[in-house]
Write a structure and sequence with these properties.
Layout (H helix, E strand, L loop, with lengths): L12 H13 L9 H11 L7 H4 L19 E9 L5 H18 L21 E6 L1 H6 L30 E7 L2 H15 L3 E10 L32 H5 L35 E10 L1 H5 L3 H8 L36 H5 L10 E2 L2 E7 L5 E11 L6 H11 L6 E11 L11 H4 L2
Antiparallel strand pairs: 1-3, 1-4, 2-3, 5-8, 5-9, 6-8, 7-8
Helix pairs in contact: 1-2, 4-6
Length: 436
């Protein structure tokens, strides 16, 4: 064991269980002079039964960018927005962000933290990531309106939106992802306890993706419509990836052409001191219900025309495999484009949206069935970009107007948050804003 940064001894969740189990067995082993405890010590020194790679994978918390953005999607996600309690000020929020950051840094490495309730005690870190963000309303509440980025302006309304205000927006945002549901739950409970008196949960959405190892080889995720989803996502090794996804140092007032408000919202009261956002990003959250009974009522051929891809392989209808470039100009036997003008992949493609790009990292959800028997299920859509006015807004405007997939979807909740850059060891997320 080695000392944690706080000065307390650090211990992994898995080792904690081994020690606790040995102590618990001591009463049964008194007659053999504590041999059971000695044996447990030897077993632990030798490594004991190793965690699987799935359980032992740890994602660093500290770094230039927060984890959970470019991290490969884990099997479970819990998204939460928080409202500040009355009277919570800037100092209280700063103290909370330090508590949250310190604790997340330890949990993501599989360490035990104060008040651990052992829900996840026999698991490793399981690729846990915890990502923090700030909503537009936070800045007014803590007296930082002049430091609110212009790009954090309200999203404009879109045709077909049916948004529930109670499940939208929020002062603070946390995204907890892990490959184990108990690890995710235990992390959320810990964050909630640490927030007591400062912030309360406004809404929560639980999502899931395919579990690692469930397929013979790594594959792109399928959504609840059965379609391969995420094929044309930008890749971190793309030359323009950082510029499109993260806020650059030379981004000026981080508002571009007036932020999202310039496309229908308000430009806000952002000042010129926006360096604190450098290396950060913006996330747009949409809870999108899939009208699965309607979708299932059309045949496979029509489903493929709606998307523009083969359902089995994810290949564009113009041929090739999943990763082949779509030939949007290729005509079919009747002279019309093989990929229809309103096919989802055409309408959303960057080449038809002046290069607008976003990193999609969504999760499926299923919250039971309605009184009509229809599943309340769909996609927890998360889009990450350097400025929503140059990513989500223009693409969603076009999708809402002419996407063949729109009749099978309903947008039921919406939120946008600025995601501060990562922090160095000893610091906390949002420090340059809250202490600057």
């Amino acid at each position: 064991m080695k000392p944690a940064s706080s000065g307390r001894w650090s211990v992994s969740r898995r080792r904690f269980v081994g020690v606790a189990g040995a102590a618990g067995a001591g009463g049964l082993a008194i007659g053999v002079g504590g041999g059971a405890v000695a044996f447990a010590g030897e077993s632990d020194r030798d490594g004991g039964t190793p965690l699987t790679r799935l359980g032992s994978t740890a994602v660093p918390f500290f770094g230039k960018h927060q984890a959970g953005i470019t991290t490969p999607a884990q099997a479970k996600a819990v998204l939460l927005a928080w409202d500040l309690e009355p009277g919570a000020d800037r100092a209280a929020v700063a103290a909370l962000m330090r508590r949250w950051s310190d604790t997340a840094a330890r949990l993501t490495q599989g360490e035990v933290v104060d008040g651990d309730d052992q829900v996840a005690a026999d698991a490793g870190p399981c690729s846990l990531t915890v990502t923090f963000g700030f909503g537009a309303t936070l800045f007014d509440k803590v007296g930082l309106a002049q430091r609110r980025p212009a790009a954090l302006a309200p999203l404009p309304p879109f045709p077909g939106d049916a948004l529930d205000a109670a499940r939208s927006d929020g002062d603070l945002f946390t995204q907890v992802c892990a490959d184990d549901g108990l690890v995710a739950f235990a992390t959320v409970r810990t964050l909630q306890r640490l927030a007591k008196g400062v912030a309360r949960v406004r809404w929560q959405s639980n999502g899931f993706a395919r579990s690692p190892g469930a397929t013979a080889k790594p594959m792109t995720h399928r959504n609840l419509m059965g379609q391969i989803d995420g094929t044309n996502n930008p890749k971190p090794n793309d030359p323009a990836f950082d510029k499109k996804i993260f806020v650059a140092e030379d981004a000026g007032d981080v508002g571009g052409a007036g932020g999202a408000g310039g496309a229908g919202g308000t430009s806000g009261t952002a000042g010129t001191d926006q360096k604190w956002v450098t290396g950060g990003t913006y996330v747009v959250f949409r809870r999108i219900r899939m009208l699965l009974d309607t979708w299932d009522g059309i045949d496979k051929a029509r489903q493929e025309r709606v998307i523009g891809r083969a359902k089995d392989t994810g290949a564009p209808l113009t041929g090739g495999d999943e990763h082949s470039a779509a030939d949007f100009g290729k005509p079919g036997p009747d002279g019309t484009p093989v990929i229809a003008a309103d096919a989802h992949i055409r309408v959303a493609a960057p080449e038809f949206n002046r290069g607008a790009t976003m990193l999609r990292r969504g999760y499926s959800y299923h919250d039971g069935f309605g009184t009509d028997g229809a599943p309340d299920a769909g996609l927890l859509f998360l889009a990450w970009q350097h400025d929503p006015a140059d990513g989500f807004v223009p693409i969603q405007r076009k999708l809402a107007r002419g996407d063949a997939l729109s009749p099978f979807l309903r947008h039921e909740a919406s939120a946008m948050f600025v995601i501060p850059p990562g922090c160095a060891q000893g610091g906390y997320v949002g420090q340059s804003l809250l202490e600057g």
